[in-house]
Automatic annotation (TrEMBL):
Signal peptide bounds: 1-18
All copies of domain C-type lectin, residue ranges: 54-97
Keyword Hydrolase attributed: no
Keywords: Signal
CDD domains membership: CLECT
Protein name: C-type lectin domain-containing protein
Gene3D superfamilies: Mannose-Binding Protein A, subunit A (3.10.100.10)
InterPro entries from the UniProt entry: C-type_lectin-like, C-type_lectin-like/link_sf, CTDL_fold
Length: 105
């Protein structure tokens, strides 16, 4: 089954981490994020949709090359945003990461 998943060709989405974002703290403790051209900002994260169909491991490597990660949807609102963004770009499928390995407090 995992071999089948690896060979599946899907589109992917990148959420770049704050490591590469040009953000700064305001006095109200809000974060101002400036994404690079071609990226979209939402809730202090930069998103970019790549329409090239690639296997998951290649999508992950691309994300890491940008200093980010494949998006890991954390809540309903992020799910809606990501789904709508992909749909607006003509996409139907995309990779997401799994949060089950993340420890929560």
């Amino acid at each position: 089954m995992s071999e089948m998943i690896r060979t599946m060709i899907l589109m992917y989405l990148l959420m770049i981490s704050s490591v590469r974002m040009n953000g700064y703290w305001r006095s109200t403790r809000e974060i101002k994020v400036d994404c690079q051209p071609g990226w979209e900002v939402k809730d202090d994260n930069c998103y970019k949709y790549f329409s090239d169909p690639v296997p998951w491991d290649q999508a992950k490597a691309t994300c890491q090359a940008y200093g980010g990660m494949i998006v890991a949807v954390k809540n309903y609102y992020q799910n809606e945003y990501v789904g709508n963004m992909v749909e607006s770009k003509g996409g139907k499928r995309f990779w997401i990461d799994d949060l089950s390995h993340v420890r929560r407090c």
